[in-house]
Amino acid sequence: MATKQQAEVSRGSRARYVYAILRAAGGWEPELAGLGTSPVRTVREDDLVALVSDAAGLRVAPTRSHLLTHQRVADAVLREHTVVPVAFGTVLPSEERVREVLRTAHAPLVRALDVLEGRVELGLKVYCHRDALTRRLEEEAPELARRPSEPEEDHEQRMELALLERTTRDMGVLRDGLGPLVAAAHESAPLGERMLLNAAFLVDRAAVAAFEARLRTLAARTEVYAYRFSGPWPGYSFVDVRLGVETGPAAVS
Predict the structure, then answer these.
(1) What domain range is 35 assigned to?
(2) Starting from the edge strand earliest in sequence, which strands make up the sheet with 119-128, in order?
(3) Are 220 and 129 within one domain?
(4) Beta-carbon neighbour count of residue 114 at 10 Å?
(5) What is the band of 57 on the pLDDT scale with cuts at 50, 70, 90?
(6) How many CA atoms lie within 13 A of 5 on its CB side?
(7) Same domain, 54 and 158
(8) Do residues 38 and 52 both lie within one domain?
(9) pTM over 0.85
(10) Reported confidence tier of residue 166, pLDDT bands at 50, 70, 90
(11) Are residues 124 and 113 in the same domain?
C-alpha cells in the first residue's frame, strides 16, 4: 500500500530534500548547489525557513558524494546563520509538506534555535598512547614495577588500575580546563580500546579561538595522548527535534 508521501509524489509533486532549518532573514536565499547540483533554496513558513533542493525520489543513497554535499551545504550556511541541522537523507514529498513540518514542529524548532543561537559544535576525541603512558607511570612510581616472584597477572592488574586512575584524572583535568568556554557538552561512548574521550562541545562562536588555544595548552602538557579536534559544525549533538518524516523505497543515486 502506498504511503501518504508516495501518493503525493505520484500525483506529480516534486519531492524536497531538507538540509537544515533556520530563522527567516528577509529575502535571503543561499547561492549553493545541493544534491545532483540542484540549487538550494528556502521554503518559508512564518518566521522559519527550511533549506531544500529538488529530489528525484523519497530516499537518497548514502554515497560519499551525497554525504559530503549535505555537510557542505550545512557548513556554508552555518558561517553566517544559526541552523538546526537536519539528518542526512531527510526528504519530504512536496513543498507543502515542508511548510506543514515547519508549522507542526514550530515550537521545538524555535527552542532548538534558541539553544544554538550564536553557537557551534566542536568535536574532540582523545586517544591514549598506552605504552608511553605505562613507561611514564613506571618512571614516576618505581613501585609499579613487577615485584620479585609477583605473578604476571597480578602485575598487569596493578598496572591496569594505575592506568585507569591516571587517564580518569587527566580527562577530568581536560574537562575542567575547557569547561569555562563551553555552553554544553555531550559525550558518546569511546570507540575502541585506545579512545578515552569522544565528546562534542557547544561553544559560542566568539569563544572558538579561545577554546582551540586552551586545548593546545592542555594538550602540550603531555605527549602520552593524541587529540583529534574537529569543527565547527552545526549542533547535531545538542538538538533532538522529531520531524516525523517517512521514507519511501525509491533512492536517488
Answers:
(1) 4-117+237-252
(2) 184-187, 195-204, 119-128, 225-233
(3) yes
(4) 9
(5) confident
(6) 21
(7) no
(8) yes
(9) no
(10) very high
(11) no
